[in-house]
Write a structure and sequence with these properties.
Elements (H helix, E strand, L loop, with lengths): L4 H15 L8 H8 L3 H13 L3 E4 L5 E4 L8 H9 L24 H16 L3 H11 L5
Antiparallel strand pairs: 1-2
């Protein structure tokens, strides 16, 4: 499993919104500039996060974006599943039960299912707020 730029940029955008949260909407151009990311690329990510309620949008004068929920309620696992799809390391670990015709006889299936469980539990245990707190404490935490 490899996290794409879409997933990484989505996380960076959400951390930026949390870090600069003052109750007002933040322009996408400001986020793009601070994160050194293409505004056009972020525009492709916004609808995914907005539809899921992770982002709140406001159009027009003083429009922009802010978190749709508190940073402490948005997990990395949720964001990455929205932007990447399944986080399973192999296709047969995605479903329960596994959709593979060999699943009944596969001796490696439990390994992949265990790895999938660990990945999801780990990422679901970290919130945008946790990242921000780590950044405030250590000031060297990088996504």
């Amino acid at each position: 499993m490899k996290i794409s730029t879409r997933g990484r940029y989505a996380l960076r955008m959400l951390v930026d919104l949390a870090e600069h949260d003052n109750g007002e909407y933040i322009a996408l151009k400001d986020i793009a500039k601070r994160q050194d990311v293409s505004k056009k690329y972020l525009e492709q990510i916004v609808p995914i996060l907005n539809k899921a309620g992770v982002l709140s949008t406001n159009r027009g004068y003083q429009g922009g974006y802010r978190l749709g929920r508190p940073a402490s309620q948005i997990t990395l696992g949720e964001v990455l599943r929205l932007t990447e799809g399944s986080l399973a390391p192999v296709a047969c670990a995605e479903g329960d039960p596994a959709a593979c015709v060999r699943s009944a006889d596969c001796v490696t299936l439990p390994v992949w299912q265990g790895l999938n469980r660990v990945i999801n539990e780990y990422l679901d245990g970290i919130t945008i707020g946790d990242i921000l707190q780590q950044e405030l404490v250590a000031n060297d935490y990088v996504i």
